Amino acid sequence: MSATGAAPAQLTDVELKLLQALIYQECGMHFDARRTEFLIDRLQRRLKESQMDSFYRYYRHLTSGQGKEELALLLENLTVNETSFFRNKAQLELFQKHILEDLLARKAAAGDYSIRIWSAGCSTGQEPYTLAMMVCDSLIYHNLRFPHRQEIPLGRAIVPSPWQVEVLASDLNYTVLRTAQEGSYNEAQMAPVDYSCRLRYFDKLADRYAVRAAVKQLVHFDFHNLKTEFVPQQRNDFIFCRNVMMYFDEAEQKRLVEKFYRCLNPGGHVFVGHAESLLSLTKKFAMVHRNSGTAYQRIEVAT
Questions:
Q1: 136 and 122 in contact (C-beta within 8 Å)?
Q2: Strand partners, 298
Q3: Residues 183 and 218 sit within 8 Å (Cβ to Cβ)
């Protein structure tokens, strides 16, 4: 252990490369020269918390059987969990008013009443809850225009029969997943949520807003490492993976795009962050653009 008040351990180039390689191997995150300072800062914090006197000793601990919990904590500290309700409104408008509306019409005509969405990198839950609420709004509007002949009134059900909605929300960070599952947000976090939406989908509890149980039932939160080839949910209509690929190098981005392609329905869509693009990574998706909103649609490729 390092002595109290002792100078912080110095990180050598060799130790940095070892730790960078370990992080890349575990979760695919790549730290180039622009983000090395951020990485070093987070490593120094974890070294201090672990009360170790060298980064090489810390590396040996991370790669040992006893270091799995610390490795998970390190990876949590390397992600910036910035999120909000209704983030990137132009993109969400494209999703709800054009892509989703068209999908509902096609699914109803085909007798398929299931909607499946994967929020990959869901952070503290605002994105998957936003998507669930938007789909519910669209379904109610759709069924008002095109009533289903077998529809049974369900009182205040937020998903009209016979539709079924599943939102998988995954993240690498256990801490944010616990917060997301609680579904409780303060006034500052609720700023993007308008009054009517708050009335429909939230309960006011003291100075916080709790997502109603009916919305929570549509969203399943689960740990998932995008580095793995495991696909947590197949046959998705939509995948939202916004501001996540920026952590990966080009090789990992291409691998992730292939993974998304495999678990999308034909014609399904991927939504990425406004500073991210699939155009240079694959020819299996076509860009959809409208009023500053962008998405990527799966192209059916002959095998």
A1: no
A2: 285
A3: no
Domain positions in the chain: 13-77, 89-298
Which parts of the chain are beta strand (E)?
114-120, 164-171, 184-186, 202-205, 208-211, 219-223, 236-241, 264-272, 285-290, 293-298
3: which DSSP letter? P
Q: In which band, very low, low, confident or very high, does the pLDDT at 159 lie, cut at 50, 70 and 90?
A: very high
- Cα 126-213-199 angle, rounded to 5 deg: 70
Q: Of 226, 203, 215, nearest to 126 (Cα)?
A: 215
How much is the pLDDT for 3? 44
| CA dihedral (115, 246, 170, 209) positive or negative | negative
Q: What CATH class does 13-77 carry?
A: mainly alpha
- Taking 3-state DSSP, the helix, strand and coil percentages for the chain, each rounded to the nearest 5, stand at 45, 20, 35
Instruction: Read off the tokens for 119.
Output: 């929020």
| Rounded-to-integer distance, Cα 29 and Cα 245, Å | 9
Cβ(17)–Cβ(25) under 8 Å? no
Tell me if 32 sits within 8 A of 40, measured CB to CB.
Answer: no
Dihedral (CA of 174, 175, 178, 183) sign: negative
pLDDT tens sequence across 117-156 = 999 999 999 999 999 999 999 999 888 877 765 544 444 5
Residue that wins the pLDDT comparison between 278 and 157:
278
- Please state the φ and ψ torsions of residue 257, each to the nearest 5 degrees: -65, -40
Planar angle of CA 140, 141, 145, nearest 5 degrees: 115
Adjacency order of strands within the sheet including 208-211: 184-186, 208-211, 202-205
Domain at 89-298: CATH architecture: 3-Layer(aba) Sandwich (3.40)
Per the CB < 8 A criterion, the answer to whether 85 and 130 are in contact is yes
Which is nearest to 135 in space by CA: 108, 106, 95, 107? 95
